[in-house]
Sequence to fold (363 residues):
Amino acid sequence: MSGGSRPMSTEMEPILNPTTGCSPTSADAGTVAGTDAGAGSPDANPTIEVRLAPDFFDRSIRADVGRGLTSTPKELPPKWFYDDRGSELFDRITRLPEYYPTRREWEILRREAGHIADFGAEIFIELGSGTSEKTRTLLDAMVGSGLRTYVPFDVSEGMLSRQARSLVDEYPDLRVHAMVADFEHHMGTWPSGGRHLVAFLGGTIGNLDPGERKEFLAELVSHMAPGDGLLLGTDLIKDPGRLVAAYDDAEGVTASFNLNVLRVINRELHADFDPDRFAHRAHWNTAEHRIEMYLDSLVDQRVTVRDLGLEVEFAAGEAMLTEISTKFDRAELSEELSRAGLRLEHFWTDDAGDFALSLSVMT
Ligand code: SAH
Ligand code: TRP
Fold:
């Protein structure tokens, strides 16, 4: 990406609109709160720690959109995909027949949960935890093997607090410490004391470009102790036809998801994008082994972003990059991990060899 740090997807509606029931538990970044009458007490379970400053979304959407629309070629930060409607569309994506990654990763998690529990983590942190749906497969196995604390970590506060509450009901012996935080800024601020396993599932690491991945891994490792582990989900290089279909489904759900970013910008920054004048496109970039998602302008047009005082011209056929999804192979992944100071211990794939879950350990 041309634009430096490029945080990813968030379900931002609840935070942008503090009048909803899901508003932040605290106005100050870094505040820890319980979620019931015992708020703030050390025994509260779950606890929800808000690391994001209250104006995080306002500030970053302005900066990101301003930078992306004035660069050449234009791009839009995917971070803004995940408002309430976007989250619902992403959930539908994970169930599409063409979108195999979620099912494949789940298959591996079910098969290897025992192995992963044997790692003996006491504190289990999950970056970009989303619904924590697949994670429950692991928690089922890990609670019997010494796990004390689960730390779901996501920028999407509404989703995170809903999940934290239901997880304490489902796992009464587990401490749940949810963190509303950005893994590009708040890594390492999680609880200490005991062996850590950090999970990053769903292939989300592939949404970072090589420079961002390097920075991400370096930062992560700087907060790990020798013997701590990283459980990483990565999609694998395969037939481009299947890859493109996974990001351009027949029903058009992925197209709606991609176009949703325009509605978010219209709403939040008073822009006048007409989603009907853009088309979703998924392209396989062989050299970079990644899917690139674009919104192509269908006509010559001018778009106004009122809150930024910005007028942007689009030529017919002009492409605007909104997301990348990098695919890996074992050799490359192992190399990238080892450069970061992580030793690959296990590389598990589903039976079809579509997706990989790896467990690596800090040396
Ligand atoms: N792990 C889930 C969800 C993947 S979607 C799965 O495998 O299906 C990506 C998730 O990462 C979303 O929940 C999004 O809110 C979160 N996310 C994206 N960028 C983030 C960032 N910079 N910091 C923390 N969470 C982030
Ligand atoms: N982490 C997911 C992936 O790379 C995100 C994703 C799936 C996505 N489908 C998408 C992002 C469509 C943008 C558009 O597979």
In short: The longest strand covers residues 278-285. The chain is about 30% helix and 25% strand. The domain at 31-239+329-362 is CATH 3.40.50.150 (Rossmann fold). Residues 1-29 have pLDDT under 50 and may be disordered.
